[in-house]
Every structure is written in C-alpha cells, then in structure tokens.
Please model this.
Amino acid sequence: MAGSIKIVNEGEAALVERFGRYQRTLSPGLNFTLPVIDTVIIDTTREQVFDVPPQDAVTKDVVQVKADAVVFWEIDDLYKVHYQVDDIKTAIESFVLTSLRTAISQMDMTELLSARSDLSSTLLQDINSVTDEWGVRIRRVDVKDLKFDEDVMQSLEDLRISREHKLAAIVQAEGRKQVAIEEAESRRAAAIAEAQGLMEAVKILSHNSEVESEKKTALQDIIKFLVAQRYVDASQKIGESPNAKILFMDPNKLSEALGELIAHEEIGSLPGSGRTSA
Model:
C-alpha cells in the first residue's frame, strides 16, 4: 500500500510509465499506482527562468552587436515535453538564440535601440509558434542588454550632441524672429500714432482761425521738422539691410508736400467750397 501511493503537489505534473510505456498523467493530489510495475516521472509546471548567454549578431545596416535575453517559460503539456524533445531547456535556448540573431538582422541600429520592446514581442511570437509543439509556453522574452563597439557608441554620442545643437539653434532663431516681429509691430504702432498726431496738427492749422499767425508758423515748422526727422530715421533703417534697395527723396519736396497738404485742408474748409476736411 505504501509503495502504491503517490502524492503530486500543486504546481507539479506526473507521468506514469508501465514497462517503459506511457500509461497516464497524474493530477495534483493523492494517486495510486502499481508498485515495481509503474514508474512515476514528476516535473514542475511552475514558471521557470533562464538566461540566454550573450550572442553576436549583425544588424540590417551591418553593425556588430552583442545581445542577451531572459526567457520566462512553463510546462504546458508534460507528455510532449518528455516524449517529443530530448532536452527541453537546451532546445529552448538554441531556438531563442537563432530567433534573436534573425530578428536583429531584420532591424537597423536605430530601430534596435528605439524599439527594444518590439524586438521582445517579435521573439515571443516566433518562439511560441514552435514551442507549442513541444508542450512549452513561453511567457515572456526580455532582451536584457545590447552592446555595440566603442566606435559605434561614440558616433551615436556625436550624433546626439549634433542634434541638440541643431535644436538649440532652431529655438534661438525662433526667438529672434519673434522679437523682430514684436519690434516691427511696436514701430508700426508708433508710426501710426505719430502720423495721426501730425494729421491732427494739420487740421488745427487749417481749421482753427483762433490760432495766431506766428504760432501757426511755428507749429508748421515743428511739423516739418518732425516729418524730416522721420524721413531720416526711415532712410537709416532701410540702409541697415544689405538686401534692401535704398530710395532717396529730397527733404525739400517733403516740405512742399506738407505745405500743399495744409493749403488743401484750408481750401477744403472754406465756406462754399463744397468739401469737408479729410
């Protein structure tokens, strides 16, 4: 009776062989077998882990890399594990190494560095398509480390620094552009305000009969000075641009134009002229 009792623990599976032939599979718990005649083979069905040793591989853009991985697996069908594969751990390790080299050869170095999770997913799918026939389920494959030559790593570092400098230059250029736009808007607003002030002064000279002649003359001179000053400033700004075409105008013409504008306003304000001031 003692020899016929076999206890299988939870997380284990057992096979019964009778005279060397498979008889049945035992479930966890209390089981009875025939002493001497039956042989019981017990194995764990819990998740197991083993490291895949570093493997040399070549990427799609012909870069040497050394990669290793960690495999998490468990027995799904003990019958297949014992009767279809001689050494299941060696078989899994060999197939993982082959799949790892194949997957790396289909990716370039940039993809390999940025999509390590994609590499792990590809390996898991490819390996499970084969190990299902062995009675083994691969839970997870993690690519633990990727090692490149020092020259390759230095090139990557130089590329990273170059990209950072380029990004900084772009940010600075955008900043200068924004400042220039704001300055141009400020100058535009100031010019509009000044032009409006000059026009108001012209209207005062043209329509206000209470302004004394001497004061009116002085005010005209001030307006002419301001117009000439704006002309000089504008000419200087245009001259600062190496690509701009510079057009010069006689300041006397500006004074004459201003006088005509004032006279035009005066005529337009006379009674019966049929015109109103602009």
Q: What stands out?
A: The CA atoms of residues 34 and 76 lie 26 Å apart. The longest helix spans residues 150-207. The radius of gyration is 46 Å. The beta strands are 5-8, 12-18, 21-26, 29-32, 38-44, 48-58, 64-75, 136-148.
